[in-house]
Amino acid sequence: MYRILNVLRIFRLMLSRTLQTNRKAAGLERTDELRRRAQQIHEGCVQLCELVGIRVRPQGKMPDRSGMLVVANHFTVLDPLILASVAPMAPVARADLQSWPIIGNVSMAHGMIPVDRDRRTAVASFVERVGERLAAGLNVLVFPEGNTSEDLAVRPFRTGAFEAVAGKVGGMVLPAYLSLDSVEDDPATDDVRRRIVWLEHTSFWSHVWGLAALRSLEYTVHIGEPISAEGRNRKELAQLARNAVERIRVSLHSART
Can you list the domains of the chain with their CATH numbers? Predict the structure, then answer.
């Protein structure tokens, strides 16, 4: 029963926030609209985390600037919500999300940037959308691993989103590592983390249904040092960012063992 009530509460909040976001963004100039939607998703994610018992603790300070490409590891459907609860961000997500019932409408209303990684012809359009958000002073959230995985190590980063900042004066990439600290108030061991990860053979709805049974989750968002994009190509930036995220993971793992 708790799981059903939890899902209903989540969807009720998502729908009410979507209506509110569309209302507040209506009629605004494009830059103001993008900023409003990013602020709305931030506020909505804070509410959602409180609603379902997710505690989020930032470790480190967000730089006193905006317009950064924020890159992080990825292992559950909750990751964008947790990171966006720390600061306003425009999230990047798989393109087919747009067609999903309810989820698609909610995501697009809050300024999601769709990416189709299987179509090379869509890359230019995607990079343009990312660049538009960055130029508007928004942080853009990307999970460059592409997919979730039960692997504990951070996998190689895909380079597409880095094209939007590569070589640009003032361009910045901000690495972040999302760690699961506890589940139901018990320490989250590597085995626990593997049990709740979103595996490729598991459907979105099955994954959400499993998470909805949990009453308490605690995460830490470890914020790294910004990486300058000036004079660096997308492949170099992707490698530097991946190494930075992996170093945080290794440091945390060493401290726990």
Answer: 2-256 (3.40.1130)
